[in-house]
Amino acid sequence: xxxxxxxxxxxxxxxxxxxxxxxxxxxxxxxxxxxxxxxxxxxxxxxxxxxxxxxxxxxxxxxxxxxxxxxxxxxxxxxxxxxxxxxxxxxxxxxxxxxxxxxxxxxxxxxxxxxxxxxxxxxxxxxxxxxxxxxxxxxxxxxxxxxxxxxxxxxxxxxxxxxxxxxxxxxxxxxxxxxxxxxxxxxxxxxxxxxxxxxxxxxxxxxxxxxxxxxxxxxxx
Length: 221
What we know:
single chain, mainly alpha, Rhomboid-like fold, two-stranded antiparallel sheet
């Protein structure tokens, strides 16, 4: 049992079932309130180190509920997509592991904001959820623009490209946020990657050994 599994067992009784439902519901509520109170209301939700030091502790949590869009049409699809991803990941992993993944993502965003001294947003946290879903269900199909069927693995390629460009050309705060989001992803999928490397290495060794035996057989003839 690795450290992640041990941590899962320790927090299992405190884990929030259907966590993504509450996140999506509160994000929707924030979107509705923003229509009445405007950008001033939203600005009080961002994670901002200087504001935290002034005692605005709520920002440690409220930045998670900042909507990904303020378009009434787009927000419906975005929140549904987030809920579908989160619910599926929880069903696949279990409640404790999904809670940990999200908690690590939140903590990573906070750390990135503190390091860069800039505003923290849930953008890269949400993108890391997408990467996790695409890794587990690469052939899951979605309708892009409600018309074009696209497999998740192809959208994941675009996501990886976005992360790469952010790390190469983004601002310091964007780079740090992208790196910690990817670190969260690799923490949870490290085993998959190492098993894949070992499997490919074993296959290559088997293939090399087979070709060697064929050559030796031909020489004996």
